[in-house]
Design a protein that fits this description.
N-(1-d-carboxylethyl)-l-norvaline Dehydrogenase, domain 2; Rossmann fold; binds uridine-5'-diphosphate-xylopyranose; elongated; 14 strands
Length: 460
């Protein structure tokens, strides 16, 4: 049975990156055997069930098509390492919470543990592929660990960062802007790189598969995320100015984005960026710059995170000021809790910060979200005595003083706003943290509407 496969690929870490990425390779390449393992047994059981551990549009279909055929989810790490030719590592690299670099640097303990485990189990040469986002020169540390026994087994380390975004992961994996592979510029490095290029070339045009040295590849991933986050902080900083000057952030973004050198994408003003990557990767970049004594460069990137924090706090202050400077015992409804639409993920979601601040102001919160309520309960546990979690947005809004949109779910664009308005306490407030509803229409119904980066529409 086993010999029918051309290659055996293993992925360590069955999270938001490892799971969908390997599912796509398996789906596109039935000639390879793909095993995905994780130390979390519950997660693996979920990957093997009808209820996958993550929500991602289109993921169920590709997992169902490949699972059991050439895609396997397992917890037998040792066996999987022994039999694999190529090992992708996508374990998490959170921000360090202790010791040197706490709150800034990447915590590499899972990485090192994984490298040592590979070394302990391997009986044949392997290509090790860094999928996780890592500080520059991590591959060097990986190589040193893998050669620390001086044994005859050759390990070639490649950097192949993943650029997928949650909510669009399947499309991003199927039609990526680019695939980046960094390798040593040695004969064995180039050979390993070409082997990985051939895997992706099964469905991706070779012109989109770009190669570089390892360090540039590791750095490019962090810089891509830093640039994307910087765009959001740039537009959000201008949204604050628009609110003071009666300019409209959508018009400004449109006018600016029409310049093809700037482009239209990623210019949506919001309550701030969230997600597991942006903040973590920028802090990592800042730490790296400080480490090398580049304090001005570090300060520059640090300001991207500062503006993001400012934007979240500004939203809370706008709510408080509009609602007569007190939120005590007022029922406030948060629409959406995920860090963006089409995912159930709430990691670093701005909604967490905003919810906490509103709780401090003694508001009574009702939180609704089509996919993230379970995560919201965990995020707010121990401080949610005055928080309710309600599936139905109409029921959630009923009897509230204000609605605040946290996540740009399509669902919120076309609700019966007359019905919602009639069920609320007056004056009814609407804070659109994502600028997704028709503000003029809501104003005409009777709401006092507070968009981001646009003049407020109020009846008083
Ligand atoms: C993670 C990192 O956050 C990101 O920086 C990197 O680019 C890719 O990996 P993600 O997949 O979203 O992203 O993380 P997560 O969903 O937490 O998945 C990591 C998985 O690795 C978890 O399921 C965890 O149980 C597993 N893991 C962790 C191991 O299998 N072994 C370990 O030693 C540590
Ligand atoms: C990001 C990168 O896009 C991806 O390439 C990388 O691999 C991982 O990090 P992700 O965090 O999943 O992906 O989602 P993304 O679409 O980038 O959104 C991040 C945050 O920015 C979300 O909170 C989103 O709502 C916010 N955002 C995005 C804005 O506020 N305005 C925008 O115009 C775009």
């Amino acid at each position: 049975m086993e010999t029918r496969f051309e290659k055996k690929l293993l992925c360590i870490g069955a999270g938001y990156v490892g799971g969908p990425t390997m599912a796509m390779i398996a789906y596109k390449c039935p000639q390879y055997k793909i095993t995905v393992i994780d130390i979390n047994h519950k997660r693996i059981a979920e990957w093997n069930s009808d209820n996958l551990p993550i929500y991602e549009p289109g993921l169920d279909e590709i997992v169902k098509a490949a699972r059991g055929r050439n895609l396997f989810f397992s917890t037998d790490v040792d066996k999987a390492i022994k039999e694999s030719d190529i090992i992708f590592v996508s374990v998490n690299t959170p921000t360090k919470t202790f010791g040197v670099g706490a709150g800034m640097a990447a915590d590499l303990q899972y990485w090192e543990k994984t490298a040592r485990h590979i070394l302990q189990c391997a009986e044949s040469p392997k290509i090790i592929v860094e999928k996780s986002t890592l500080p520059v020169k991590t591959a060097l540390a990986m190589e040193r660990i893998l050669t620390s026994n001086n044994n005859k087994i050759h390990f070639e380390v490649l950097s192949n960062p993943e650029f997928l975004a949650e909510g669009t992961a399947i499309n991003d994996l199927e039609n990526p802007d680019r695939v980046l592979i960094g390798s040593r510029q040695t004969e064995s490095g180039i050979k390993a790189r070409d082997e990985l290029v051939e895997i992706y070339a099964n469905w991706i045009n070779k012109q989109r598969i770009i190669t570089s040295d390892i360090w540039s590849s590791e750095l490019s991933k962090i810089v891509s995320n830093a640039f994307l986050a910087q765009r959001i902080s740039s537009i959000n900083s201008i949204s604050a100015l628009c609110e003071k000057t009666d300019a409209d952030i959508n018009d400004v973004a449109r006018a600016v984005g029409f310049d093809s050198r700037i482009g239209m994408k990623f210019l949506n003003a919001s309550i701030g960026f969230g997600g597991s990557c942006f903040k973590k990767d920028i802090l990592n970049l800042v730490y790296l710059c400080r480490y090398y004594g580049l304090n001005e460069v570090a300060d520059y990137w640090d300001s991207v995170v500062k503006i993001n924090d400012f934007q979240k706090e500004r939203f809370v202050i706008n709510m408080l000021t509009a609602m007569f400077n007190t939120l005590v015992n007022k029922k406030i409804c948060l629409w959406g809790f995920a860090f963006k639409a089409n995912t159930g993920d709430t990691r670093e979601s701005p909604a967490i910060y905003i919810a906490k601040r509103l709780i401090e102001e003694k508001a009574e919160l009702v939180i609704t979200d089509p996919k993230a309520l379970e995560r919201a309960r965990i995020d707010l546990q121990n401080i949610d005595a005055n928080v309710k979690y309600v599936e139905d947005p109409y029921e959630a809004a009923s009897g509230s003083y204000a609605i605040a949109i946290m996540t740009e779910w399509d669902l919120y664009k076309n609700l019966n706003y007359e019905k919602i308005y009639n069920s609320m306490i007056k004056p009814a407030f609407f804070f659109d943290g994502r600028n997704i509803v028709d503000h003029q229409r809501l104003f005409e119904i009777g709401f006092n509407v507070f968009p981001i980066g646009k003049p407020a529409l109020t009846h008083f």
